[in-house]
Amino acid sequence: MMEKTVKRGTRTGFTTGACSAAAARAAVLGLVCGAVPERVECLLPNGQQVVFAVNDGCCEGDSAQRRAHAMVIKDAGDDPDCTDKAHLTADVRLLPQRPGEVLLLGGFGVGTVTMPGLGLEVGGPAINPVPRRNIEANVRLAGAPLLEQAGLEVTLSVPQGIEMAKKTLNARLGILGGISILGTTGIVKPYSTAAYRASVVQGVEVAATTGSGVAVLTTGGRTEKFAMEELPHLPQACFVQMGDFLRYALDTAVACRLPRVVIGGMVGKLTKIAQGETITHAGRAEVDTALLAELCAGIGVPPEVCEDIRNAETARYASERVQALGLVHEFHQALAERVVATVAGRYPGQFQLTVLVCDFDGRKLAEASSSP
Prior knowledge:
Elements: E1 13-14, H1 16-33, E2 39-43, E3 49-53, E4 55-60, E5 67-73, E6 87-95, E7 102-106, E8 109-110, E9 112-113, H2 129-147, E10 151-157, H3 161-165, E11 175-176, E12 178-179, E13 187-188, H4 194-208, E14 214-218, H5 221-230, E15 239-241, H6 246-255, E16 260-265, H7 267-274, H8 289-298, H9 303-310, H10 315-324, H11 328-346, E17 352-358, E18 364-369
Parallel strand pairs: 7-10, 8-12, 14-15, 14-16, 16-17
Antiparallel strand pairs: 1-13, 2-3, 4-5, 5-6, 6-10, 9-11, 17-18
Helix pairs in contact: 1-2, 4-6, 7-11, 8-9
């Protein structure tokens, strides 16, 4: 009989940035030595030296027309994200008239930046600053003999990048035509939340560039669909699926001086926000059913029902009990107002807050706002 739970692995993997750097270094060594190595040592952003297997290595041309090609297959370890097994590919050629220069380009399957707010040049490839520096560092280490006489042009591509990008938030962030080259350490830790947390911060930063003056933070796909239907006049880039990372989203909104924030959610996550949790993951803190019982008492729910709600395990139980009493709107309105009071107390005067509440089918139940 199979166990109900399977222990997650702990094997680390490598980022798209680290694999790109390894491919680039291998291709440059092909220009230096005349043949691309089958294995290459690569310096990661965190200072580690790691050996990568190299695929499809080849060199062609002679003298100033020399070119080299190399590819490294991404191994995400025990955190198999949508870019696992991506073919990070580097094509390198000499630039005879530009000695000492390293020019980094994006080829097929590497996204193009089309909106400001990412810290990257609009119109340029979606290669983030840390991997960009790391790729150049590896190219310079391998290509030092050549760079005295010529520059090096490195074009990164990912054959599966367009399909992989459909499973990311890239289009929402204005990154079109492929995946991003990412990674601040070079290492992917299994089931790390760091990548998602970073995408939430980036999403709010992009929302701040739209000129709408608002970020709409939702806890998932259903609540985002609901919020988009409620706010159809806003551009898509204003909507950020923050998941459990409220604190990072709100801190970024403050840093970007956004005048307005909207939070869209359902009873469970909103209860956690109302009780002061800014990381709302199920494993971080239990729902405060005593808070729900207090809200219910305030709208006239009988004491014995309030006690049942206090002793329950879930916030959904409270919403079901008030529904039976015909107090759905009153209950969710009180919850929305408590969320506003809690968040405004943590971020006094930083932004106007609106809270939108929907049920599990995406129907609006309540709305509350702080003073402008």
